[in-house]
Design goal:
- The radius of gyration is 23 Å and the shape is globular.
- The protein has 13 helices and 20 strands.
- α1 (18-30) runs parallel beside α13.
- The chain has helices at residues 18-30, 49-57, 77-81, 98-111, 165-168, 204-215, 242-250, 254-265, 272-283, 315-319, 345-348, 379-382, 389-404; strands at residues 8-14, 38-41, 89-90, 95-96, 118-119, 123-131, 134-141, 146-154, 160-161, 179-181, 196-200, 219-223, 287-290, 294-301, 304-311, 325-328, 332-333, 353-354, 357-358, 371-373.
- It is of the alpha/beta class.
- Strands 1, 2, 5, 6, 7, 8 and 20 form a seven-stranded mixed β-sheet that branches.
- The protein folds into two domains: 8-159 and 334-408, FAD/NAD(P)-binding domain (3-Layer(bba) Sandwich); 162-231 and 269-331, FAD/NAD(P)-binding domain (3-Layer(bba) Sandwich), CATH 3.50.50.60.
- The two termini are 28 Å apart.
- Helix content is 29%, strand content 22%.
- β1, α1 and β2 form a beta-alpha-beta unit.
- Bound molecules: flavin-adenine dinucleotide (FAD).
């Protein structure tokens, strides 16, 4: 662990993405004195590195969420920051341009005096321990150093790449860049002139990849089990407040809550603007849609990928073609039991798991201890927007009181 790493801290935040930044600004707004008792860990050693990389790699021009969704506690802070940059707010709801958003976040980091606060290391292990008769967590870094923390917030982001079964059974006969999951694709480094690319999946990532590939000289076939459809946001805005969350929180059956989350997100969707752009490219013969089609097998041949569909008339289009690249925009899956950071927690503080997600307390506590989760892991409590920017705000509203109010803290002595 870096030399800057404290041996003991009050609050350890693991991860320095937008969710962690949201938590820290909301925390400091409530209790400034926590600044010097706080440590933030991320191998990047800086804020928002993963966010920036994923937007650059997919060549994303602007966010899907509106300008009031961001890590600062003041919802209007981004609009003010953009006063002289109105061309960087995109219709229909002032969606911030990628550069504007990143520069705004840099401003947030500066204003909250957080620039040099990220300790450049990966946390590899967390376990509950005791120190002089009090409850603590022992955090271990990739370099083998340790840090004792009274409270821990995990804001480590996305789950694991989701690979369809037919991909799992493929022999490794193809060149590495012939088959990639979207998490590992970087359009800036892809040579695609006159390449035939098959993109699997119907979410926004598939749309960004298709547009980026065409821009670089490829022709694209987009295949999905369902029909491609346009939706402004990935979950209805009613999920940002009491309209839907009231009923969600009243539901005490965790399986039903998990089903509500799945149905609200309804798999992947494109935005109407991206769908329009793709349809224009389809008219120019650069993009082809193959819908209601389930891939059964793929085989790497001298002339590229040969793909067979299990279902759907439209599958015939696939088997008659060859593809140079097979890109999986098949999302990520979340199974908290596979999170290596939490391996030790199961022995001392097991929690129920529903649909791969942990059942946390209303304050997003793991079991009866001072370990808090953020992001997609909190979907059973925060709802379908848990993994989004606004989910970070909703999670902070649950966690911050537990970190700042003595009446909500758990007993520290063992
Ligand atoms: C392409 C794309 C576009 C998106 N666009 C939007 C949008 O417009 N609006 C919206 O609301 N949401 C959007 N999202 C969803 C979501 O907001 C982002 O995925 C966001 O990055 C999630 O923030 P996060 O802080 O949870 O995770 P991340 O941004 O992934 O940050 C997590 C950080 O944790 C660090 N980390 C991980 N493990 C460890 C460890 N063991 N130790 C220390 N550090 C660790 C990582 O290095 C990383 O920096 C988008 C997602 C994607 C993939």
């Amino acid at each position: 662990m870096s030399d800057r790493c404290p041996k003991a801290v009050d609050v350890a935040v693991v991860g320095a993405g937008p969710q962690a930044l949201t938590l820290v600004t909301h925390l400091l707004q409530k209790k400034k004195s926590l600044r010097d008792r706080l440590a933030i860990f991320d191998p990047a050693g800086t804020w928002m590195q993963h966010w920036k990389e994923q937007f650059a790699a997919l060549d994303i021009p602007h966010l899907r969420s509106p300008a009031v969704h961001h890590p600062d506690p003041d919802p209007y802070a981004l609009r003010r920051f953009a006063t002289s940059r109105s061309t960087e707010l995109f219709p229909p709801y002032d969606l911030p341009g990628t550069r504007l958003f990143e520069e705004f976040c840099e401003d947030v980091v500066r204003r909250w005096e957080l620039s040099d606060r990220v300790i450049p290391t990966r946390i590899t292990h967390i376990e509950p321990t005791k120190y002089r008769g009090t409850r603590r967590f022992r955090l271990e870094s990739a370099e083998g150093s340790t840090c004792l923390a009274r409270r821990v917030v995990l804001a480590t982001g996305e789950g694991l790449p989701n690979f369809p079964d037919w991909v799992k059974s493929l022999p490794p006969l193809h060149p590495p860049d012939a088959l990639q999951h979207s998490n590992h694709i970087d359009l800036r480094r892809s040579h695609l002139q006159q390449r035939r690319v098959l993109i699997v999946g119907s979410g926004l990532t598939s749309g960004h990849l298709a547009i980026g590939a065409v821009k670089r000289g490829a022709t694209v076939t987009m295949v999905a089990r369902r029909e491609f459809y346009g939706k402004l946001f990935d979950a209805d805005p009613g999920w940002l407040g009491p309209k839907y969350l009231k009923g969600f929180h009243a539901e005490r059956d965790w399986d039903k809550r998990a089903a509500m989350v799945r149905s609200a997100r309804n798999g992947g969707s494109l935005t109407p603007a991206i769908l329009l752009k793709l349809r224009q490219l389809a008219r120019q013969g650069k993009v082809e849609f193959v819908e209601n089609c389930q891939i059964a097998t793929a085989a790497w041949t001298n002339s590229g990928w040969r793909v067979e569909a299990a279902l759907g008339e439209s599958g015939k289009t696939l088997s008659s073609q060859r593809f140079d690249r097979l890109w999986l925009a098949t999302g990520t899956h979340f199974d908290i039991r596979q999170n290596p950071l939490l391996a030790a927690m199961w022995e001392t503080h097991p929690v129920p798991v529903v649909g791969g997600l942990p059942v946390l307390s209303d304050r997003l506590r793991w079991g009866n201890c001072e370990l808090f989760l953020m992001g997609a892991w909190t979907a059973l409590q925060v709802g379908p927007v848990a993994r989004n920017l606004y989910g970070g705000k909703l999670a902070s509203e649950c966690i911050v009181p537990a970190l700042t109010k003595a009446s909500l803290a758990l007993p520290v002595s063992v």
